[in-house]
Amino acid sequence: MFKFILFTVVAIVCLIAVFFVPDMWLKALLVCAAASIGVLVSIAGRSLLVNKEKNAKVSDMETMLREREMHVSRIDSEKVAVIGKFSSIIAHELRNPLSSLKNVAYFFKETKKFEGGAAYSMLELLSTEVDRINSIVSDICDLSKNSELHKEIVKMDSFMEVLLGPMNIENNIRITRDIDAIELNADPDKLKRLMTCLISNARNAMPEGGEIVISVKKSGDSASITVKDTGCGMDKTTLTHAFEPLFTTRTKALGLGLTMAKEIVSAHKGTIKVESEQGKGTLFHISLPL
Length: 290
Hints:
Layout: H1 2-18, H2 24-111, H3 118-144, E1 152-155, H4 156-164, E2 173-179, E3 183-186, H5 188-204, E4 210-219, E5 222-229, H6 236-240, H7 257-267, E6 271-277, E7 281-289
Parallel strand pairs: 2-4
Antiparallel strand pairs: 1-3, 4-5, 5-7, 6-7
């Protein structure tokens, strides 16, 4: 912009000077100079216009991307809101008959009339499936309550020690920890649910074994938490929809785990990101204000 104005001013000065200079050769020289500068002005103007158009296109593209992200986020929030709205109804309508089925299975197992037979195996299956359905109902109910926080000071080193201690991890999966002694103002129950979800997700991605690396570090005014696995990773489609409610690649899952994790992080005014590549594992990065 500065060059464009400078060249324009110089060209105008040269043209004005033509009328006050008596020598013809000097007038010709000034006219040539004005013409040359005019060409430079034209080039500078065209460059300025091109840059302006490029900046406008970049700005429009950034605006479109922000609007798309906001639209996707709004749709996800609406899905979560609908799920939350009906969660209490689902819980009430399903938990009573599920409890009855559980009691029936327990009764027949205790009578030992079917012990050791095929019927006993079916009772075991019934009990297991009732527990699985009850777990799904609990996940749905928990999703609607993730915005309700009861914060307290959490000492992350001792918290993670207690969390990982009794956790049932297969023998072929190793957990590596790198956890600093930092204090985090958070809801401990929600934090436990968040970490359990991410660790479970990592474990499910490594059916043949591998390593889970958990890191907790202080980063400015935030706690940086990472959970990395050496599992199968995600393809681009799965990565794009990872946090969407009801999206899952597993046959026996409802697709609410990572949605719940994102809701917990958002309720704490934090951020969660995921990086993944097929065959090379997945990395979740969470940033929570201290």
